[in-house]
Amino acid sequence: DFIQMFVRKLRGEDEEEELLIDYVTKEVNNMTVKMPYQCFINGKFEDADNGKNYDTINPTDGSVICKVSYASVGDVDRAVAAAKEAFDNGPWGKMNPRDRGSLLYKLADLMEEHQEELATIESIDSGAVYTLALKTHVGMSIQTFRYFAGWCDKIQGKTIPINQARPNRNLTFTKKEPLGVCAIIIPWNYPLMMLAWKSAACLAAGNTLVLKPAQVTPLTALKFAELSAKAGIPKGVINILPGSGGMVGQRLSDHPDIRKLGFTGSTPIGKEIMKSCALSNLKKVSLELGGKSPLIIFSDCDMDKAVRMGMGSVFFNKGENCIAAGRLFVEESIHDEFISRVVEEIKKMKIGDPLDRSTDHGPQNHKAHMEKLLEYCETGVKEGATLVYGGKQVDRPGFFMEPTVFTEVEDHMFIAKEESFGPVMVVSKFKDGDVDGVLQRANDTEYGLASGVFTRDINKAMYVSERLEAGTVFVNTYNKTDVASPFGGFKQSGFGKDLGEDALLEYLKTKAVTVEY
Ligand code: NAP
Ligand code: MG
């Protein structure tokens, strides 16, 4: 039909090339899920060139879901060459921006058609609670593609008055141009959403990309690759390589033909990547790194809301949330009431199979992460913080961790300083009325990703939000991210925004053209 013809034309193919996919098929969550498991290079699914693969694990019971290709340095080089060819000579580079937008809308529609399947795959590979996966992991990914699809034909430069070279006249105008081949390296906490946040902006700007998902959560990225091909995104524009950070990630950072690297992950790895990007070819980088976001709760808050959102700030997505509140500062006069209400609510949380629609809290993403969290809690206890609730592994198969609450946490303690990235609430008191004191403590961290404040006093809220050193400040809410609002950190939480117009600029360069007439 017409759409298919259009798609074939955009892909530069006269005859429809059959996309051959060797799926792993599973009956799960009352549906059949079809999962590609090979590297996606130049529009084709294929084994890693050395034939290696590895097991991806379901954290709900520790079982193997399937084997996944383990990409090599040779695969990276082939993928980058394909992305370069697609950018330099393929239909993508010549396409009208509005047509590029149409393809991205088509991709978002296909993701929506497959949202239950994507959410199911996300749930079994990452332990995300299915209902949340549907709404957030997959739902926000779809919204992200729609949002950036709309930007494609609105990427504009400026006309700039410069000094004239009399008697002639001059005009300078700027153009926003794509950078070329981009690399994207992402973590495991929101596997598809992290892919979407970076890829959608990257593609809307007109670039081509090679993406490495986290080793422990490769499956939704590969399903996305399939949908991108079905949407008619030309071959070579999107390449997905499951594999290790040390090999695939390192080669991407070093590669001379890559012009930009977008990274979300830990601060230490972010520093390594930036160093490699600088030494290889000075590629542009954006880094979304760790956080230890403070949440300040004043006694004049709406207590019901503060309890509900305070819990969400920590336990959302089992605490595997980059903007999770790493530290709660609660004003002394409401401290005990706040804690007892939080504990009461935790007892009502249903821990269990993430595919069960009534589950609130699923397994941690993978075994090593759960073990690190248990150690984190042991350290908290050893240092003398009060363990009010949890701190242990749940007695059932899989990698479940109890929602945990620590109080009496002092500023020098490990758990006051280091990110857990798990369901661990770390609470400290502050003296009644000591706004500047609590601000000083909240800012006494090298991180600066997010922050929050609960108070009914608008002046206090404005004062505090002005002084918090963080890329995001939530006032009387938390976790309220939106595709249209820029997201990213200050200080050692990195630089360069995801989402919003700012994200687009991360994937563009500005050319100034000066004309004399
Ligand atoms: P990580 O160890 O930094 O890994 C992130 C990604 O980098 C993975 O794909 C990893 O590959 C890869 N990688 C590892 N070493 C590399 C190297 N030498 N060169 C290139 N890539 C390399 O982080 P994580 O433990 O998976 O994720 C948790 C961290 O991410 C937390 O600190 C969290 O705060 C942060 N995070 C931040 C945001 C944000 O928006 N700011 C969002 C989510 C998460 P492997 O698969 O082999 O590990
Ligand atoms: Mg997994």
Automatic annotation (TrEMBL):
It comes from the Eukaryota. Its EC number is 1.5.1.6. GO terms for biological process: 10-formyltetrahydrofolate catabolic process; one-carbon metabolic process. One of its GO terms (molecular function) is oxidoreductase activity, acting on the aldehyde or oxo group of donors, NAD or NADP as acceptor. GO terms for cellular component: cytoplasm. Keywords: NADP, One-carbon metabolism, Oxidoreductase, Phosphopantetheine, Phosphoprotein. It catalyses: (6R)-10-formyltetrahydrofolate + NADP(+) + H2O = (6S)-5,6,7,8-tetrahydrofolate + CO2 + NADPH + H(+). The keyword Phosphoprotein applies. The active site is at E288, E288 (proton acceptor), C322 (proton donor). NADP(+) binds at residues 186-188, 212-215, 245-250, 265-266, 372, 419-421. Belongs to the aldehyde dehydrogenase family. In the N-terminal section; belongs to the GART family. This is 10-formyltetrahydrofolate dehydrogenase. The lineage of its organism: Eukaryota, Metazoa, Chordata, Craniata, Vertebrata. The gene is aldh1l2.
